[in-house]
Amino acid sequence: EVRRLGFTKCLVPARSSGKLIVPEGLTLIRITTIREAIAALI
Question: Are 42 and 24 in contact (CB under 8 A)?
Fold first, then answer.
């Protein structure tokens, strides 16, 4: 669904990202802290 909505990047918790199936064209940005999430958004 995320690809259908046009997203190309997705922030995900690093701990749970190993189990995800990543659709083609989507980049996962694995984060461990809120600071990393904010930095990835700026």
Answer: no
pLDDT in tens, 19-31: 788 888 899 999 9
Helix H or strand E segment including 28? strand 27-31
Residues 6 or more apart whose Cβ sits within 8 Å of residue 3: 23, 25, 26
- The CA distance from 12 to 9, in Å, is 10
pTM for this prediction? 0.69
| H runs (alpha helix) in the chain | 34-41
